[in-house]
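Researcher: Good morning. I'm working through a list of sequences from a screen, and I'd like to move beyond sequence-only analysis. For each chain I'm collecting a predicted structure so we can compare shapes side by side. This is the next one on the list. No need for commentary yet; just the structure.
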Amino acid sequence: MPTKTLQIPTADGQADAFAAFPDHGERHPGVLMYADGFGIRPVLREMARELAGHGYYVLLPNPFYRHGPAPVIELPEHIGEEVRPAVFAQLMPLIEAHTPERVLSDADAYLRFLTTQPEVGAGPVAVTGYCIGGLLAIRTAAAHPGQVAAVAGFHGPVGAGGRDLLSKLTAEVHLATPKAT
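Model: Good morning. Structure tokens for this chain:
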């Protein structure tokens, strides 16, 4: 399966990104896949490859490109309870700096880039994300009703204004959260 490391021009600089797509020499539906708060890492690249294996061109941008290329912070192999506080202490300033205005500006750039790739077919795209990436996906879909046909969020925060965004969506919506234990 072909993959690419890309640079996406944005209003604030170049966002590094990863893309995966089928090797059929044809055009495929586009999917903008937002990373969770940990950013692009091997497991997300694998998820992008898996989704691409179902016939999609998947674009996975670094949401924290303003702070450097992915990985923006060094992550341990396993983010267990013993290291979680230190990791979140590094991540929270990056997440807090990612304002709704920046999200929408970046979304414009990501969608413009995605839809102009030669491997991406004409027509609307899908947007997906896990955790904070789910909220970014919902914001993107709400701001681009004619361009986003489907949005999926997994284990994502819908509060903090997210419920208002849901009422603005015209895309097909799929949300999943784990059961409380």
